[in-house]
């Protein structure tokens, strides 16, 4: 399976378990790796055959805007289920990081993997 990716998407989010975190915007960083059969758009040269990384990034931005998440786990799971459902992504790896959340660390967060990595498009 091929990959379409979005790396280092930096967003401002309402996220965290503490009261003070519910009142502020914090920087988060998101990486997406999404399975796709890129032979099909490579042959057609048509954007409609792609897993459009711009569409994926916009969906993530919409999920982050306007919702408070307690946990990075909840946000990562929401991103994975939404992209799989809306864009027919068969396999996805989502990383959600909070830079600066733990003193002495450059970033903390979670990485999750959902779906079937062995998936092949039927030809
Ligand atoms: N596994 C997790 N651990 C922690 C989370 C989290 O979302 N998942 N969140 C916090 C706090 O919100 C923290 O980021 C504030 O600095 C602590 N641990």
UniProtKB/TrEMBL annotation:
Its EC number is 4.1.2.25. It comes from the Bacteria. It catalyses: 7,8-dihydroneopterin = 7,8-dihydromonapterin; 7,8-dihydroneopterin = 6-hydroxymethyl-7,8-dihydropterin + glycolaldehyde. SUPFAM superfamilies: Tetrahydrobiopterin biosynthesis enzymes-like (SSF55620). The gene is folB. Pfam families: FolB. The keyword Lyase applies. One of its GO terms (biological process) is folic acid biosynthetic process. It comes from Thiothrix fructosivorans. GO terms for cellular component: cytoplasm. One of its GO terms (molecular function) is dihydroneopterin aldolase activity. Catalyzes the conversion of 7,8-dihydroneopterin to 6-hydroxymethyl-7,8-dihydropterin. This is 7,8-dihydroneopterin aldolase. Pathway: Cofactor biosynthesis; tetrahydrofolate biosynthesis; 2-amino-4-hydroxy-6-hydroxymethyl-7,8-dihydropteridine diphosphate from 7,8-dihydroneopterin triphosphate: step 3/4. Belongs to the DHNA family.
């Amino acid at each position: 399976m091929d990959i379409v990716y979005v790396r280092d998407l930096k967003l401002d989010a309402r996220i965290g378990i503490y009261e003070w975190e519910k009142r502020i915007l914090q920087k988060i960083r998101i990486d997406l790796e999404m399975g796709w059969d890129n032979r099909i758009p490579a042959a057609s040269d048509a954007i409609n055959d792609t897993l459009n990384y711009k569409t994926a990034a916009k969906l993530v931005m919409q999920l982050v805007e306007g919702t408070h998440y307690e946990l990075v786990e909840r946000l990562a799971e929401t991103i994975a289920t939404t992209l799989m459902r809306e864009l027919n992504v068969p396999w996805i790896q989502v990383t959600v990081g909070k830079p600066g959340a733990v003193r002495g660390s450059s970033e903390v967060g979670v990485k999750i993997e959902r779906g079937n990595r062995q998936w092949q498009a039927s030809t």
